[in-house]
Amino acid sequence: MTEVKSPETAAPPAAVPSELTEEPGRWHRVRPYLPLVALVVALILPYSTLHLPGIFEGALNSPGTLQLLAVCLVFGGLAAGYDLLFGRTGMLSFGHALYFAAGVYGTDILITHAGLPLWQAAPLAIVGGTILAGLIGAVALRTVGIAFAMVTLAFAQVGAILVARDFGGLTGGEEGLPLDVSGVPAGLVGVANTVNLYWLALAYLVVVVFVVHRVSGSPTGRVLAGLRDDERRIGVLGLDPYRFKLVAFTLAGGLAAAGGVVYCLIVGGASPHITSSELTLSLLVMVVLGGPGTRWGPVLGGILYMYLDHRLVSVGSSGAVDALPGFLSRPLSQPLFVLGTVFILAVYFFPGGLAGLASRVALLRDSLRLGSRRQS
Amino acid sequence: MPGSRTGQSQSGDDSATEPILTVEELSVRIAGLHILQGVSFTVAPTGVTVLLGRNGVGKTTTLRAVVGLTPRNGEVGGAVRMGAEDLLTRPTHRLVRGGLGYVPEDRCVFAGLTVAENLRLAERRGSTPAYDRVYALFPELDRRSRQRAGSLSGGQQQMLAIGRVLINDNRLLLVDEPTKGLAPKVVTEVAEVLQRVAESVPVLLVEQNLAVVRRLARDAVVLDAGRVAWTGDAKRLLSEAALTKSLLGVGSAEVQH
Amino acid sequence: MLATRGLTWRIGEVAIVDSVAIDLAPGEFLGVIGPNGAGKTSLFNLITGLRRATEGQVTLDGQDISALPPYRRARLGLGRTFQASSVFGSLSVRENVRLAVQAHRGGSMKLWRRAAADREVAAAADAALHRVGLTHRGTALAGTLAHGEKRKLEIALLLAGEPRVMLLDEPMAGVSAEDVPDLVQVIRSLTGDSGRSVLMVEHHMDVILELADRIAVMHHGALLACDTPETVMANPTVQEAYLGEEL
Amino acid sequence: MDAIILLTLTGLGLAALYFLVASGLSLVFGLADVLNFAHGLFLGVGAYATWWAAGNLPGAGPDGLGFVVAVAFGVAAGTLMAVLVELVLIRPLYSRTIEQVLVTVGLSLAGVALLQATWGADARPFPRPEWTRQVTPILGAQVPNGGLLLIVAATLVLGAILAFLRWTRYGLIIRAGVENREMVTALGIDVRKAFTLVFAIGGAAAALAGALGSVYFGTVSPQQGGSLLIFAFIVVVIGGMGSVVGSAYAAVAVGLLQQFVNYYGTSGLGDICVVALLAVVLLLRPQGIAGKVATA
Amino acid sequence: GSPQNTASGGGDSAAPVKVGLVYSQSGALASYGKQYIEGFRAGLDFATGGTNKVGDRAIEITEVDDAGDPAKAVSAAKDLIGKGSKIIAGSTASGVALQVAPIAAQNQVLFISGPAATDAVTGANKYTFRSGRQSYQDVVTAKSFIGDPTGKKVVVFAQDGAFGDANEAAVRAVIGGAGANVSAVRAPASATEFTPFASQIKSAKPDLLFVAWAGTTAPAMWQTLDQQGVLTSTTVVTGLDIRASWPTFGAAGSKISFLSHYFDGASDTEAAKAAKAKIPGGTLDLFHPDGFAAAQMVVRAAQEGGDDVEKMISALEGWSFEGVKGTMTIRAEDHALLQPMYQASLTGSGDTFTATAQKALAGDETAPPVQAMKG
Ligand SMILES: Nc1ncnc2c1ncn2[C@@H]1O[C@H](COP(=O)(O)OP(=O)(O)OP(=O)(O)O)[C@@H](O)[C@H]1O
Ligand SMILES: Nc1ncnc2c1ncn2[C@@H]1O[C@H](COP(=O)(O)OP(=O)(O)OP(=O)(O)O)[C@@H](O)[C@H]1O
Ligand SMILES: [Mg+2]
Ligand SMILES: [Mg+2]
């Protein structure tokens, strides 16, 4: 063969898009309703005074818990959107943080500096983020594989530098830009209204999951899945790989920008943390932790990651850790140490991510059943 | 179905000599699929033993299990012995260093390396590489020694894959569809090469080209759906029309070419 | 229908494909043979646009397509299979074919439609699978297929696109003897009276002889001969350079 | 005039630092196909081990031979760390590129946090010979000796890696192994050993970079490795993955560009120029300056 | 339950006073955070006479790590407010302080910012106070090194970003406003090679060089300035960082004039003695006074205000107290904390350096201009 292997080195572990397969099995009937159940649980959560010691600091409906959950939900949605690129199309972007940051800073700047009300700032930020993704994608998609990853990283890095440079005092540099809440509806301001932010985040997550699900199960989604395996083949079938990749890239960018808007409201401002390549890397971690290319994996991964990221900080400073001998307590009081260790372990013990867990359990169950049948 | 179909172990005239390779109840599961379900056969210490069967019956899987290349998510059961040593417990590179040569189905030349580098890689410590042997068989490889293997034509890659194994002296060769994609002339040449090689080294061959099989094979093992369907004399298999038809699904006219 | 004029592809000084001119009439079946490394696959790559020719043109129905990217050529009705099977490994066999059908029928850029709901696509895909005899493998991941099965899937992908000109690169390589006749049947049915043309590289001479109307012989990148099977087989150069002595 | 000489020489010193960091990264990334985000950690381990040795190891110290011993200890520690990482974490994940990336990301988070837990977040003064703090006047420019030391070290490392790749079979084995590990095994080669070796060399180069970089900075801190890593990545990619020579060219380009733009342009422009250079190179030549396949 | 549940303040008089401390226990600023909390504990002990009680109400401290990340800090603050804390203190990083301040205002709780030096906290809103110094006070101290600035040439060398911007602006306002000719050399915070900047500075021949540089590259920066002869050719002023950083100045240390917020031995007040006795190790450092003052302010607020935040604010506004550094005054207009600042010099070598106070400037000498309260 004269065709040299395409340099696409970093295709994610294969998973058949569940949207494209009609799966048989006993769960068949129940399964479509499980997400609905989860949604209902999520909806009634703020009405519960249940206290889960160790899991959350306060009761489920306390502002602290709701705030934490809201952040988790946004990242669940963000990870699901990123998965559209990575898990479903096989594009390894290292610059996804940029579009998220565009949403956050866009909203913040439009409200705080330009004095626009939220209902104008939010759509503008989302459209802006989407256009940015489209433009950068149009350039970056001329490369593939690691080169693509690096070009996206480079663009994101420029974004990070611009934010840090704080041109015209627009971004607030490394100190960030607190949101001027006078442009925000009163219902989204103040601790007592945290629940509204929670609902906003939940709505965002639902929208993203729905969009990603719809798109993956659509004819376009089928092409994206094909792109992940063999781009050349797609071309020979008569489809322009570039166009499809650009669509996926832009769409994912738009979803990230929308997430940025929600995040900006939840956190009440923007800070340069979110422009860093580490954010993109953690998105990658979330997706892989959850299971790339699966419907719920990235969502769960995102939620879990963010939960750990926030909660480990308080575990680290808890009395239980302090009581341990020094050589244990010192590393354990470093949240990043625990987080890093957790996901090294996760990579080993949940290959295929959390979503892979279910099928592995099913496999186990099947083989057990098979074994017992053989015995009888 | 003819009575000789099942579990017949050894055939041929010189069955007195010990087999070089004994495969016993080999079973392979990959990702929950039971691909080989108790395959047993032996390879005679001289000549070519051919492994036949339709696409997907498990020929490649068998060879790969013998050299220890079953994928990570697979389980292997049964026993594979070369002389007295058990092969299944040893890592692939040890087996190969011990004289087990393997030519994979899809050639697997290193696309980024030049032809010469591909060959150099195959050199084994402690034995002199037989470049002249390889270049005599495939002068093309000598001529293209600085070309990247990835840009070779399909046939050239196949030559390289075979040449890579012949650089060393082996105790047993496992060759998976060596003539696939080769021009008729080269097929003849490769068949000749294998014939010559088989004079000194026993070969376990997977081959679809029945003309080649007819020319080379002494013993035959026919697989069907992960089980051995027949073992015996290759000549007999190819000459008895009923047998050929039932096991290989082709009339003997086609075998005659 | 398909024609090339002075098609040349050079790497450095070496001409891998050397001013090749072929004409493929509607409904014609042209076999391509030649020693390994003669440039057959390269020729296919030039025709389908995976490689850019250094010189020369490719025309389809009189239209110059030399400058078009692969996907545009495919849309004009040019389909091909690959010598090294190139299927979508992480999709199921059925999905593979559906993707090909869908690519052909258009409407791939529909983000909001349910793909699985398109019964026509599914039916066409199943028909293609049936024709190559892979129906029973429909749910397997294409990446886990045995070699011969992948070859058949390649052909199914081609069939699904209903191309007018088909380029087959060694479809029989690695296919078990038992299945060769079936596959020959499938390939034969590709042309029939439909007016489709086929360009097929194959080293199995019996297959070529059975199917081809004419045979083109390539050697060192150039077209050595292009004539009826009988004439070509009688050509002493072909005998010597390609066929060698009978096994 | 002397400004230009000064900028050129210090730019080369910076380039040497980038190259030292990038060489190991490039080797591991290009040959073993592992995008090693933990490289910064190896750097940190090398630096802290050297720092520790200079204060505690008998025979080692901040000056003369003692310093050489300390650096040797640091390099040994970095090598050992890299070998352990390869054996325990990377080896089980070969051919699962993404998971490898993640494990190295996890490792760098955890490892840097561990360094911080052990020695604190603050920068500590790094033991170093007195002459490294001085300057050498060259054509009227006061060139820091630390920079010259880096240039010498980088040249030696470049030579050593090239010799390794050219004169041993390992280069070949590793390049083949990246393409198809299984097939290398099937040729009778224990490919695992070769990969461990690559990691060991990468770790050693990183540790050396960490130690000499700390000499140059005058301090050692847990985050130091990470901040150099981004430029090292850029250098590796511009140079062409896996090409050590390419990395050397790229390092020089990046170092000089940064230095001159920072002097003549406005601040911060240097970084943006480097990123722009990366984007331009990748768009024009996605395989980098020296391309993916190179023997050296 | 209801979806809008927030714990009510707990009006009954014996209920503990809930105080939330959100600061960096991990991350890059962990060591600043550590000093802050040590100082806070000592201050609490000092201000309550060892009882940790205000009247009969215990002071209940909840500490939360923000790891320097504003998002985490905001979550933590909301959680604390939700659980009934009326007082939040901490903020090691400026970014955290700026984002927590509006949260405090939105929820009408008291916020006492900690070591965060950004000027923007001053006058941010009426709920926000500060227990540490601000950049402006640093710069005024720097100005005291050159006597009459009229006609003098001053160069600011600062890193890019808000920290550098703030310093440059302050120098322009304070020293430039007093008649000096101010120019700036800025460098990216990520720079590792400083020769170009050193050359630029040298060719500018300033009378005073003001350096605002934080982070791990500082030692390399100083070494380069030293090697290129900048330190010996002019007066170089910079802020004195925490003790652990002193050895990293190396030989350059003795050639620099330091302005200092605080170091051990800079003052000898009652509070300083008490703090010294109480903190682990017995050596005070840069941010101990901030924690100490925060505790004093918390106690004052609780004592005078009970659970009424408005009352707390009026109790603090204009309040003058004896802190570790000496007399501190909370300016009523914008909540700036007027406090003594120091000129210092550094001597020593290897790992042992000592700082000596050259001069102390009283709180009103370094007072920043009054800001209009923003919210
Ligand atoms: N990694 C794998 N995962 C799942 N199934 C596999 C895997 N490898 C092989 N199989 C299945 O095992 C069966 C046997 O495959 P094998 O490659 O051994 O067949 P073969 O006899 O060599 O066929 P061919 O003549 O086409 O090369 C096939 O059905 C194939 O789909
Ligand atoms: N990128 C390349 N660089 C150098 N030589 C190349 C390149 N691509 C192809 N070649 C050479 O061009 C020639 C033609 O290759 P091609 O694959 O077209 O042959 P083929 O006729 O298809 O052979 P086969 O029947 O073996 O498949 C071969 O000699 C090959 O080595
Ligand atoms: Mg096979
Ligand atoms: Mg070919």
From TrEMBL, chain A:
Question: What keyword terms does UniProt attach to this protein?
Answer: Cell membrane, Membrane, Transmembrane, Transmembrane helix
- Top-rank taxon, per record: Bacteria
Compartments, as annotated in UniProt = Cell membrane
Q: Where are the transmembrane segments?
A: 33-52, 64-85, 97-116, 122-141, 184-212, 246-271, 283-308, 336-358
- Record membrane topology: Multi-pass membrane protein
Specify where the region named Disordered lies, as residue ranges: 1-21
GO CC terms of this entry: plasma membrane
Q: Which CDD domains match?
A: TM_PBP1_LivM_like
Query: What name appears for this protein in its UniProt entry?
Result: Branched-chain amino acid ABC transporter permease
This chain's source organism reads: Micromonospora radicis
From TrEMBL, chain B:
Domain named ABC transporter: which ranges?
21-250
Pfam family, any one: ABC_tran
Please verify whether the record's keywords include Transport: yes
Q: Which organism is it from?
A: Micromonospora radicis
Family statement drawn from the similarity comment of this UniProt entry? Belongs to the ABC transporter superfamily.
Alphabetic keyword roster: Amino-acid transport, ATP-binding, Nucleotide-binding, Transport
Write down the PROSITE patterns for this protein, in alphabetical order: ABC_TRANSPORTER_1, ABC_TRANSPORTER_2
Cross-referenced InterPro entries, in alphabetical order?
AAA+_ATPase, ABC_transporter-like_ATP-bd, ABC_transporter-like_CS, BCAA_Transport_ATP-bd_LivF, P-loop_NTPase
What is the protein name stated in its UniProt record?
A: ABC transporter ATP-binding protein
Gene Ontology molecular-function annotations: ATP binding; ATP hydrolysis activity; branched-chain amino acid transmembrane transporter activity
Gene Ontology process terms (BP)? L-amino acid transport
UniProtKB/TrEMBL annotation, chain C:
> What Gene3D superfamilies does the record point to?
P-loop containing nucleotide triphosphate hydrolases
Domain (ABC transporter) spans: 2-245
| Keyword ATP-binding in record | yes
Q: Which UniProt keywords apply?
A: ATP-binding, Nucleotide-binding, Transport
Q: Which InterPro entries match?
A: AAA+_ATPase, ABC_AA/LPS_Transport, ABC_transporter-like_ATP-bd, ABC_transporter-like_CS, BCA_ABC_TP_C, P-loop_NTPase
Provide any one GO MF term from the record: ATP binding
One Pfam family here: BCA_ABC_TP_C
Output a single Gene Ontology CC term carried by this record: plasma membrane
Family matches, as PANTHER family = ABC TRANSPORTER ATP-BINDING PROTEIN, CONSERVED COMPONENT OF ABC TRANSPORTER FOR NATURAL AMINO ACIDS-RELATED
Protein name in the entry: ABC transporter ATP-binding protein
- Give the organism the record lists: Micromonospora radicis
Automatic annotation (TrEMBL), chain D:
Which CDD domains does the record match to this protein? TM_PBP1_LivH_like (cd06582)
Put simply, this protein is called Branched-chain amino acid ABC transporter permease
Q: Name one GO molecular function term.
A: transmembrane transporter activity
Quote the subcellular location field of this record: Cell membrane
Q: Which UniProt keywords apply?
A: Amino-acid transport, Cell membrane, Membrane, Transmembrane, Transmembrane helix, Transport
The Gene Ontology biological process terms listed for this entry are: amino acid transport
| Family indicated by similarity | Belongs to the binding-protein-dependent transport system permease family. LivHM subfamily.
- InterPro entries, alphabetized: ABC_transp_permease, BCAA_transport_permease
Where is it chiefly localized?
A: membrane
Q: One GO cellular component from the entry?
A: plasma membrane
Membrane topology, from the record: Multi-pass membrane protein
Q: At the top level of its lineage, which domain of life is listed? A: Bacteria
Transmembrane domains' residue ranges: 6-27, 34-53, 65-89, 101-121, 146-165, 194-217, 229-256, 263-284
